[in-house]
From TrEMBL, chains A, C:
This is Molybdopterin synthase catalytic subunit. Its EC number is 2.8.1.12. It is an enzyme of class 2 (transferase). SUPFAM superfamilies: Molybdopterin synthase subunit MoaE. Heterotetramer of 2 MoaD subunits and 2 MoaE subunits. Also stable as homodimer. The enzyme changes between these two forms during catalysis.
Automatic annotation (TrEMBL), chains B, D:
This is Molybdopterin synthase sulfur carrier subunit. Gene3D superfamilies: 3.10.20.30. It comes from Pedobacter mendelii. Coiled coil: none annotated. InterPro entries: Beta-grasp_dom_sf, Mopterin_synth/thiamin_S_b, ThiS/MoaD-like. It comes from the Bacteria.
Length: 147, 77, 147, 77
């Protein structure tokens, strides 16, 4: 067995709906798939103490994040009978209303795709060294904290 | 011993040092003690270290030229 | 309180990735949304006793299905703090590899969107009078059964 | 009593009758008994009825002009 190549998950800037559509369309030739589960993270215009979030600026310790994701990917494929799994996380400044995370899992029957998708989102948020800086309309900022 | 320091997120606003020449520091526990004495604000931030791109789970040795990353809680996604 | 209008969920033919992209894009102005959960059902080219499924032909007792869905929608909105929910089920002949179901839920935080999406898919399959006829390449057919 | 019959899915291949003139049939339990005698294949199919667009949960009365739908297990999605 050869070790699989480490995949990049990072994209610069927001994830467009056209990119998502293209990813979905590419799976129409995989006729063993019965269900796709997709999670999209969208930047929220939270109001915090009277200040409105206008964007989140994402940075990452990229090499370490990709290594972690590689390990998580292997564990998820071990645990669920998936046909495929695609993960994209934005870096840089993503405006409120834009998509910053795209997790996409597919399987023959629906449950594995759904459960793997949820688990990947949880693990990505907890285990990948990525940081979001919430930029307020007035130019100030605070560091995002995941719950 | 020379340590290369990378810091992220809110810790990058606090620790801007890129290189540290440290004696009497053998492992990551020593290093954390040193950090928290030098930057008392770190006592109020949960953080993790990575040494040479390996996230530190338990205390581990440092060597000359190690790259130590100081990482506040992750908030991707 | 006025009774909300019964929404149509049925579309004729397959659901295109462009339609899905458009639905996603429409949500960029809803800046209280933090997470979208999407489930897509894709027609599988199952092999059954040597015959390959080439398409599924969907029919429904439409009025009854829409009434049922209306009730389910109200119960899901009661149970989860959702921003919005969109459901599309294909009728007619959908070829293997094409999308026949699109469930799309959104909320401020991720968990309600994920859990509502899964619950809607389960309830739709169990409670809506819709039938899929699996058409084989050789022209024969059998009636699909949900698990 | 005149009953309008609609059937779906595999049952539509079995029961093609659109209208039934029935006496001695007062409710859905009677109707099911009639159906299963007339179409013995129905004994091997789980099915539900809907009367005037209401899915039948427990036995209910039929009236002249009722529309009865005969529905095999659902398989949407």
């Amino acid at each position: 067995m050869t070790e699989k190549k480490i995949k990049n998950i990072f994209v610069n800037g927001a994830i467009s709906s056209a990119f998502i559509a293209d990813s979905i369309a590419k799976h129409s030739s995989k006729k063993e798939i019965g269900g796709h589960s997709i999670f999209l993270g969208q930047v929220r215009a939270d109001e915090i103490e009277g200040r409105l979030v206008s964007a989140i600026d994402y940075t990452a310790y990229e090499d370490v994040a990709l290594e972690q994701m590689h390990k998580i990917r292997a564990e998820i494929f071990e645990k669920y009978p998936l046909t495929c799994m695609h993960i994209y996380q934005s870096l840089g400044t993503i405006k409120a209303g834009e998509i910053c995370l795209f997790v996409f899992t597919s399987s023959s029957h629906r449950k594995p795709a759904m459960h793997a998708c949820e688990e990947v989102v949880e693990r990505l948020k907890a285990e990948l060294p990525i940081w979001g800086k919430e930029i307020f309309e007035n130019g100030t900022h605070q560091w995002k904290e995941n719950k | 011993m020379e340590i290369e320091v990378i810091s992220f997120g809110k810790i990058a606003e606090l620790i801007t040092t890129k290189k540290l020449i440290l004696d009497f520091i053998l492992d990551t526990d020593d290093f954390k003690k040193y950090l928290e004495e030098t930057y008392p604000e770190l006592n109020n931030i949960k953080y993790k270290l990575a040494v040479d791109k390996q996230i530190v789970q338990t205390n581990c040795k440092l060597k000359d030229g190690s790259v130590v990353a100081i990482m506040p809680p992750f908030s991707g996604g």
